[in-house]
Amino acid sequence: MTSLTPFAAVILGIVLAGWLAAAVWALSTGRRMRREGMQAQGKFDRLSSLLGSAPAAPIIIHADGRIEAVDRLAKWLGKDRVPAFVSDLTAADGGLEPQDAAVLAQEIAAAQRAGRSFALPVRGEGSTRLLLVRGAPAGPALAESGSVVLWIFDATDSQSEIQALKSRVEQLRDALEALAGLVEAAPFPMWHRTPDMRLSLVNAAYVRAVDGHSAAEVIAQGTELVETVSGLTPEAAAKQALSESCAVERIVPATIDGERRTMRVVDVPLGDAGVAGFAMDQNELEQARVEHRRLEAAQRDLLDRLSAGVARFGPDRALSFWNQPFMSLFGLDQDHLADQPVFERVLDRMREARRLPEHRDFPAWRAERRDWFLSPDPREENWLLADGTHLRVYAQPLPDGGLLLIFEDRTEQVQLSSARDTLLRVRTATFDNLFESIGVFSSDGRLSLWNSRFRTIWDISEDLLAQHPRIDELLRAVQSRLAKPQQANLVRELVRAATVERKQRVGHVGFADGRIFEFAAIPLPDGNALFTMLDVTDSRRVEQVLRDRNEALEQADRVKTAFVTNMSYELRTPLTTIAGFAEMMSAGYAGEMSESAKEYVDGILQSTSRLSMLIDNVLDLTQGEAGTLPIDRAPVDLAQLAKDSVARIKGDAEAKGIDLALSLHDTLGQVEGDRRRIGQALDHLLENAVCYSGRGARVLLHGDGSGESARLVVSDNGPGISVPRQATIFDAAARAEQARSGEKAGIGLPLAKQLAEAHGGSLQLVSEPGQGTMAVIELPRG
What we know:
By secondary structure, the chain is α+β, with helices and mostly antiparallel strands. The protein has seven domains: 24-51; 54-154, PAS domain (Beta-Lactamase), CATH 3.30.450; 186-281, PAS domain (Beta-Lactamase); 290-411, PAS domain (Beta-Lactamase), CATH 3.30.450.20; 434-535, PAS domain (Beta-Lactamase, 2-Layer Sandwich); 551-629, Helix Hairpins, CATH 1.10.287; 631-780, Histidine kinase-like ATPase, C-terminal domain (Heat Shock Protein 90, 2-Layer Sandwich), CATH 3.30.565.10. The protein is 49% helix and 22% strand. The termini are far apart. InterPro entries: HATPase_C_sf, HATPase_dom, His_kinase_dom, HisK_dim/P_dom, HisK_dim/P_sf, PAS, PAS-like_dom_sf, Sensor_HK_Regulatory. This is histidine kinase. Its EC number is 2.7.13.3.
């Protein structure tokens, strides 16, 4: 064996050492590279997993049209495998809508030529899937020049969410615009502050309240609506609301439209958006509250003055108000009511006072009344109490949940109603049994009411009357029963005048059977008209007989008057001749007469004088009855007239031994009249008194007067006049009949009465059998 030289050994050692060092380095480098490779492989695997789970599928389109893509692209396109070339992807059957495929081919070609990026939404053919394609030129690290990288996103869910978000945004935008319009149109000031408490929004009411020209000017100047109160500025109040995260409400004064107003200001925190605020004018609210309290007090005062009982219960069903009639009507105690008892307890007290209707199951009845609080509508009942009291109960639920009860005592009304019904029945029976025919026509001319006599007279069927015919229809049906059918128009006009013109009219109508009816149309207070008919056939016949008889009597009276007048004048002529010859004989023109002859002649003169006076009396009486008695008018001294009359009668009185006395007062005075006629009346009274008085009687003529009239009284203490004879004492015909029967009677008293009445005066006779008689003539001064 050859041994190494030391140099060779050194060299060998150095080589071995270098080899060893190289082996160690290679080993360490290998380990490091293995470690880096493993790290790179892990990173590649992670990136592959990340790329596989990415929402986008990458595609590399090389310049020659080849495609590199992940497998899930085939699923998105509805294919079994990924297209190998871009022409397959953009072909008609490439899985995309033809229009989208053509646009995608154009965009890819433009990206390859010009190197521009693009984004394009496409849809799968026959699918609802929406794909978003984003394309850009591929870098040198990915592919050769002219290549394009595409990222395809499945945007189906995203697009639905985007559409929902767009719809939500539109809704929010509309709501925001509506809210802004509402804020702007609000009648009270509203504003918004940014987080730094500066005004950023005010509405038109705010601008008007601060007398600003525009919202921008108010915001720019920072014009505040309300004033600082107790050191608290509007900004500080808003900052307090924001810091406390709750609304802050305060009452502060403000000057609006030149008037001091009280405003309720509310600041509402909006988080990061700042603070919103609004102000409400409290003046009208306070006035409304005062008015409400005043109205409530007035209502209480009014209810307290009602005659009906009133009770009011609150939402808790406790008695809150009552009036005196309520307490009196139900016999309740003031102290008990002052404790505000509940509704049920009040009913119990009413029952204890026996002021409720009797019921078997009172608790059930009370529970039903308790439901009045929950009723949506008012309730009304009628209660009949044990003592006969009738109550009308009205229950009105109140908006606050309470109840108002009104109790009206209708006992008197019920009694009056019963009495009225009785009266109506009596009236109906009376109305139906009247002898007169009665019909009532309403304001429109329809027959509304009739009695049986009406139906009988007109002979109308019940069926026609039940239809309540108009007056025209009724008269058309009955005009054939009239003697003159055209008189139906008269009846219709009278009914119309009573209903329309409210005038009363009367008339008569004849029927064809000879009956005659008087009718009247009378307006009634209720606007209707009462039509009545009365059968006057018999009375008309009697009236005609009486009329004929009266005409015959008047004719006989005229004949009598003419006869008496003529006879008076005819008798006066021979009487004057007889009296003339007797006077001549008495004067001795026929020679001297014996005493007996003179007595005969004196008797003739007395008889002719008396007969002449009787003729004059008859003539005056006849003229007085006819109203043609002549009366002269001149001043008459009644005292002298009375003395002259007494002088004329004194001889006859003395012959019978009668005391004829005269008593005249200064008040008698004068009257305007006919002296001869007044004296004639007075003579008749004196003659009558002397004639009927016995021997030794006393006759007195008394005269007095007043400023309006004078009075002459002739009285005697004779036998007086019986009552039956006093009734006919001034009747000339009766006096003549008495004279024919042999009684002592004349026409002096009837003539004296006519003479007194011809002067506008009167003659009164007062007599008692056995007490004498007094005749009084009263004459007016004028």
